[in-house]
Each structure stands twice: as structure tokens, then as C-alpha cells.
Design brief:
alpha+beta; 3 helices
Length: about 110
């Protein structure tokens, strides 16, 4: 399986950029992260996400949603809210969330 970016979608759509620095506390994080991945995929407006972490520890997740209502449903999900509370209490030193509407989108993939 090759690594590919999330494909370009027909705009407008919404992106949420979550930048963070983690603590050393890993207790419960992997399981919670796996569960969040499961439940966000149940959201019919979820389009995909990309994630990267720098060697210095900055993590960036960009999640794509069809519209603000879909993103709002994710934000209001009770399990997600509990995970956000845990994140603030244990897993994150700091984070920033940016939400934007994508106005233009295109992509490229080399064939062969």
C-alpha cells in the first residue's frame, strides 16, 4: 500500500487543523485515538484526515469534512468530548485548532 494524501474534493468543504505538543503521558491515549478514528469515520460528512509529527514533537492533524454541520457533529459527539477533556487533562502540553472553508482544491499523482 502506497502512502497518498487525502484526495482533492469539490469545494467548498471544511478543514480542521489541529496542531499540538504532547506530554509524556501515554496512558489510554492509543486506545482512545483508535476509538476516535472509528467514530469519526461513522460521520457521513467526514472526508478523511492526514497526520504528521515532527522530530521535535509538533503534531499536526488536518481533518476534512463536507460542511460545517458535519464538523459540528464531530465536535459535539459525546465520546469525542470526553476524549478532548482527557487530552487537556493528560495528553497535551498545548494545542491550537484552526477551522477553515476550502475554496480551491486540486491534486497530482504520478502514474507508474
Amino acid at each position: 500500500m502506497s502512502i497518498q494524501p487525502v484526495p482533492a474534493f469539490e469545494p467548498p468543504y471544511v478543514m480542521a487543523v489541529f496542531s499540538n505538543v504532547r506530554t509524556s503521558d501515554e496512558s489510554g491515549y492509543p486506545e482512545t485515538n483508535d476509538r476516535m478514528n472509528e467514530i469519526v469515520r461513522e460521520n457521513p460528512g467526514f472526508l478523511g484526515y492526514e497526520f504528521a509529527r515532527t522530530p521535535g514533537g509538533l503534531g499536526i492533524t488536518v481533518a476534512y469534512f463536507r460542511d460545517h454541520e458535519s464538523l459540528g457533529a464531530w465536535r459535539e459527539d459525546l465520546e469525542h468530548q470526553a476524549a478532548m477533556k482527557q487530552g487537556r487533562a493528560h495528553w497535551y502540553e498545548s494545542y491550537t485548532l484552526h477551522v477553515a472553508t476550502v475554496e480551491r482544491s486540486h491534486g497530482f499523482a504520478r502514474n507508474g
